[in-house]
Known about the structure:
Blueprint: H1 6-15, H2 19-26, H3 30-37, H4 45-55, H5 61-64
Helix pairs in contact: 2-3
Amino acid sequence: MLRRYPTIEALRAAKGLTQQDIAEALGVSRETAGRKLIGKSKFTVSEVLKLKELLGTTATIEELLSDEFPE
């Protein structure tokens, strides 16, 4: 299945983080985190900021939520 947020997915995989890890960081269920990661639910701004910290990235919010990898 094609991921909605390839940058988030790539960073998550590189760090070895599971959907459960993402869920715990965001304070949501694993199912909710999974829906957000494939674009069936939207991330809030505060969730994206938590993801930036968890993933240890300097990527912008726009880059993280883009459908394409940044150049």
